[in-house]
Amino acid sequence: MRISELEYSNLNISNEDILEAMKEIPGYLDITPKDFLELYHKAYRHALGRLKSAIKARHIMTASVVTIDEHKPLADAAQLMANFDISGLPVIDRQGQVSGVISDKDFLKHMNITEQTSFMHVILSCLDSPNKCLARDLKGLLVKNVMSSPLISVGLETPVLEVADILESNRINRVPVLDQEFKLAGIIARSDLVRALS
Fold first, then answer.
1. pTM of whole model > 0.85?
2. Measured CA distances, 125 to 80, 106, 117, 119 (Å)
3. Which residue intervals of the chain are DSSP H helices?
């Protein structure tokens, strides 16, 4: 049975447990149970941090990434996202570099929809009156007109904990992973992080 970090932190080690463990070590130990417990917890935290920083972006990224050219019509991005059941895509420029990311949030932002507006509200606006359809203004736009930029990205060797900080501090759900030549190598979504850190 695997004991998680939370279970370890909730594991109450008594002085008796420590004394019994100390008796099993041959020779003389000049340390109190309280000192030993403090040392144990500090060593455990260091070991856990070391193990987590050993996991890099390249270990958890999805290498097969659906992308879109920044000069494509916005409808093409919507079609790809619907076909692959994904909520965001890296956007590629003419030099083959990642120039941004487009997500469902970018669509909503350009429709002037707040996070409180429901999906059904969008559908209702289009069904009720096509002239007032919230998606109407998106017609004719290109991917580059709507995508989020400048690009937020990580490298292949970026530690997973740093990737988590980047997602959290920028309030984003995915981040492209670039190789040493700044070409797209993969993508990390929040779900990849959850799997890696659990």
1. no
2. 24, 19, 11, 10
3. 5-10, 15-23, 33-54, 57-60, 74-84, 104-110, 119-128, 143-146, 160-170, 190-197
